[in-house]
Amino acid sequence: MTSNIDEHIRQALRAAADSIEPPIQELVDGGLARGRRLRRRHRMVVAGTGLVASAVVASGIVMAAQFTAGPNDVAAQGDETSRSVVEAAPANPGVGAADVSAEVEPISSEDVLETLIELLPPGEITDSKALPQDVVDGLRENPATIVTFDDGAGAANVSVTLYDFPTGGGCQHPSPNVQCTEEILDDGSTLWITQRPTYTDGRQPALIEWWATLERSDGLQIDLRQNNAVGEKDVPATRPEPPLTTEQMVAIVTSDRWDVYQVGPERQIEIRELRGSLTAANRRLAAALGDGWAPAQLTRFGYKPEAVPAGKNKTAMPDGHASVLMSRDVLEGDRSYVDRACEGWSEKGRAWDSCIEAAAPSDDSVYLLWSRSVDHSQSVPHDGLWVMYENENGDVIRVMLSVSDDPELSTPERRAEIVAWIKQQIDAMVAAATADDATTR
To answer: 313 with 181, same domain?
Structure first.
């Protein structure tokens, strides 16, 4: 896209050819100043609350896709999840710590807006907004921008938000009409591409959203989102698909124009510490589950300890299953959540039965809550189990096992086999829920 200053220069050259004296010095000075500004390193500012608190908030958002909070949408907090420890490093060669200029500016939404506009393909922008995006209740803000972009086939929203902490990503989603790919790039960053309907419950099926998310190894996340409408809710589709192709989305989020945006050294240290604590939490969960479980290596649904089948458990699952994930969280002082959850409910193609009360080896009560998919147009074939335990502090420890099957392979016989396998994991889940380290990082 042509920048305004390039247009000014062309106009100035044409004017000079006509023997008109343009403000050459002002143009040159302005161009040099802009060049210097683009060469500076912009950094995310560490403001107010810590990274871990932000991560807990992010988990409440991301976890909703897989483990719905249930009645009244009570958000789960507490024991955060894992990512494997990754040594913080620049996202691209040549942008190292020694290369960082002393002239550092915080990242603003205006910076992000300018970058997005420069990276968009040819088209018309009829509206643009640079605004900080609150994650929740002003806890922290992230530079964000949204534009109305039209490539000639209809206007639509395109937005970019930068995060200076990993928000938890992944491609597993309980809806069969969500397409997602995940790729680890040569520089150590992770790229996710998601294509999905705006509403997975069948509302307004013409509305579509496409995302491209790049999580760099230094902790900066570039999140590009677009739809095929102008607005978010209860708006008509303006075109069959969003305006940017997958290739164009990838080109934008991986552009070296984002290299000037850096996560500050203090925040990089926090990110390394968080990843280390989450990795340790994964190991503790796997150890509490016992033989047949291994710590997860990549966070899928948010900041909760996660484990995956290994050894005998992995080979015992039906071939071709979509995913298996064990996770654990802490509902601090919220016994009322158990009471509501144990009544049973249904949502988005899935149903949760009423709780079954059982006794742990310590004779304390634990509560088993089974879930299953009932509408495969909204949810992949899925069976799962929650084990909930109230400890002596009044906190509820929740261990969740989710098994999803391939829709094309799923049969009642396979589902029965999966349920039988889940039943074999109950003792391990109870051990994980009642473990002494269940509430610690």
So the answer is: no
Contacts of 322 (CB under 8 A, 6+ apart): 172, 380, 404, 405, 406
Q: What is the mean pLDDT of the chain?
A: 75
Is 90 exceeded by the pLDDT of residue 84?
no
| 84 is a domain residue | no
In a domain, 24, yes or no: yes
Domain finish residue from 263, 282, 311: 263
Structural domain that includes position 12: 4-39
Q: How far is CA 310 from CA 74, 289, 296, in A?
A: 32, 11, 10
Considering only 73-77, 203-207, 311-315, 325-329, which range has the smallest mean pLDDT?
73-77
Please count the other Cβ atoms lying within 10 Å of the Cβ belonging to residue 25.
Answer: 8
**What is the dihedral angle through the alpha carbons of 430, 435, 437, 440, rounded to the nearest 10 degrees?**
40
Phi, psi of 102 (to 5 degrees): -70, -15
Question: pTM of this prediction?
Answer: 0.62
Is 329 in contact with 76 (CB distance < 8 Å)? yes
Q: How many residues does the chain have?
A: 441
Mean pLDDT of 107-133: 90
